Amino acid sequence: MAAVVYIAAFAPDAGESVSSLIANPPPGAPVPPAVDGFLFLDKAKFAAAFAADVRPDLATFMANSQAPWGVAALDGKVTEPAWKAKPSWYLVAADDKMIPPPAQRAMAERAGAVVSEAPGSHAIYVSSPKAVAKVIEQAAHGRRSG
Q1: Domains annotated on the chain, with CATH
Q2: How far apart are CA 51 and CA 73, in angstroms?
């Protein structure tokens, strides 16, 4: 069975891009202006906004080793969302400061995804790997819960 699993992620519809979904970023989002066509999260704000529940030393490592985002990629519009053709699961990170949980819930609902929610930051895959693995296992086996 092929499925799509979203972990505190954007789930755009046809014609949407990440840029259109972040037109009104949440307060405190650490995204400074682009430099030479690339974005990095502000290292000083990284832990609080992206990885608040990650060990401080690991959050610092993550901030220092982040890969740049190409600004042009943010404008790429989805033509055929995977969630329209495949069953979908979505893990909402309830404490996310990058993609607000209400936005995650709305995208998951629109996608018809099986939704799970767990406490955690945007880096929930680091701070709560068991919650992430559980959703992936559910999707792999086509289970709607537990």
Answers
A1: 4-141 (3.40.50.1820)
A2: 23
